[in-house]
Amino acid sequence: MATNQPVYRASALKVESSPAAWQAALARLPHAHALQSWAWGQFKSRWGWEARPMTLTVAESSWEPIAAAMVLKRRIPRTPFCVLYVPRGPALEYHDVALRRQVLGKLEQLAKRERAIFIKIDPEIVRSWGLEEERPSPLGSAIMRDLHDRGWLPSDEQIQFRNTVELPLESTEEQLLAAMKQKTRYNIRLAERKGVSVRPGTPADFPTLVAMYQETAARDGFTARPAAYYLDGWTSLYDAGMAQPLVAEVEGQAVAAVILVRFGERVIYMYGASSGEARERMPNHLLQWEAIRWARAQGGKVYDFWGAPDDFNESDRMWGVWRFKAGFNGEVVRFIGAWDYPARPLLYRLYTQVIPRYLNLLRARRAQSGAESKPG
């Protein structure tokens, strides 16, 4: 199958210094993602990472990238080592067997040259579609075989969601509504009848949305970062023309919000937040519907609900979120997930297994000691 594909004489990975050239490269390449954008890389560079947007070109035509990887580098304090991460990347034509193997080889060389313990990649390559009847992806299976054969390992640390729910947007609004579960349609109309309104937000809304997001985290039991992190990230994406907040209000008070991120033909529901107010009016249902309508109006072809359970059963931490998203009749998409190349295998095992177990043991002992020291 691969015999008719070109064999590239690729150059070395080159750091790109021009934001315009970088964005132009991503626009030409398949499997590009918002987390590979210049804006996201610069944002992460202010939060402990060094951003290195790197391109690969054919030696004879160095002006046209054939692959791109926003490589994030984090140094390990008081050591000469680091870790490397390519969030939702690299971007290239993965059907081209020779090209993808060359890119993997270049990343492996980079990890060794940079004295990285490992390099992690996390491309949006589909492993399978569907829930009840999974339809495997031949491309995903082939890429996982390549990774395994080259010594890459499925990562224990899946930074991004392994699974998601996607809603194609080619249908009319009436068709999209008709395909939803009856209860979801009912709740959308209930919210409209109960006085919920949705408006586009601006950066002036971000402080309110951050407070609401942290309230959501405390209520739903996930860890939120400092407020400054979200203010920086959302503002960076908004200023780059990639992010749009939508705010649901009841009587002028914000009760729910989403941050949508548009990149290419995909619109991602990347952040969602809600307060404890007016929940009986179902603001989140109308908010999602207006987000879908906004995505269609912007020319989006796919609405990405950004996250689904790893295991589709009630014990999964995302089960409640999944039940809400399932009502909009999107399709479950499973990706190949994050893979690590352990450039230094012994240090990799120490970093990913031994140290976390030791820290967990210390936490358990502190918790037990604290419990025993409390008066009865």
Keywords:
376 residues; alpha+beta; Aminopeptidase; nine-stranded mixed β-sheet; eight-stranded mixed β-sheet; 11 helices; globular; disordered C terminus
Q: What is the class of the largest domain in the CATH system?
A: Alpha Beta
Number of domains: 2
Instruction: Tell me how many strands there are.
Output: 17
Nearest-integer average pLDDT: 92
Number of helices: 11
> C-alpha Rg, in Å?
22 Å
Characterize the biggest β-sheet. 9 strands, mixed
Q: By CATH's scheme, which homologous superfamily of the largest domain applies?
A: Gcn5-related N-acetyltransferase (GNAT)
**Unreliable runs, pLDDT <50, ≥5 residues?**
371-376
Alpha-carbon distance between the two ends: 71 Å
Write down the overall geometry: globular
In sequence order, what are the helices and strands, one letter per element?
EHHEEEEHEEEHEEHHEHHEEEHEHEEH
Name the structural class.
alpha+beta
If you consult CATH, what is the topology of the largest domain? Answer: Aminopeptidase
What is the helical fraction, as a range of percent? 25-40%
Strand portion: 25-35%
CATH architecture annotation name of the largest domain: 3-Layer(aba) Sandwich
